[in-house]
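As the next step, I wrote out a protein sequence along with its fold in token form, included below for the reader:
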Amino acid sequence: MPRMGRVVLPNYPHHIVQRGHNRQVVFAAAEDYLRYIKDLRELKEVWGVKVYAYCLMTNHVHLLVAPSESAAGLGQLMKALAARATRYRNRLEGRTGTLWESRYKSSIVQSEKYLLACCRYIELNPVRACMVTSAADYLWSSYNARVGVSPESDWLDLDACFEMLGDTAENRQESYKKFISQAVSNEELKTIRLALQRGQLTGTTRFIDEVERIAGIRIEHRGQGRPRSDR
């Protein structure tokens, strides 16, 4: 199946995964994680990109981000993040060459139905990998910042989906904790995972048709694995 060019739309959330070159380790020590999070916090402002969730794993990163009116900002953000991490590791290890795969994976996400689900998918990644028993135990994701445990929690962006969780920050945080702790269906996991792997869309058929009209191209391969209804 030929690879389709990446589709990026302004003001839409995008689920991003970028892996280390040949799946090599990209985060070996706490300082590595801290530097990437610091760079993400700084560069999202430079390129006008909203950040809803993140999780830094040993050899890859998950991000849920939305470019502003300039869709190009997303690619510029990813390029700048990768370049900074590569320069840092090369200086540290006295090496040359790339740290990351040349092409990151991306899926446009339907906000009202799948944005929170993608946040949960991202922040539970260390739990599914059996690295921790709960999202709160993992230091290198957005979960603790989102629920107000981290002292530096003010830089994550709020979509309307988060605001609907409660009237106050405290209520939203408690509702979000409950949401993350809920059992996740296999259908939800499959929808998010396949959309990301195929570079397709995370959403209902109506959303897929809407985005394809906006983009002016066929994005989804109308076959196995495509969400079947608006349920």
About this structure: The two ends are 29 Å apart (CA to CA). Residues 165 and 171 are 7 Å apart (CA to CA).
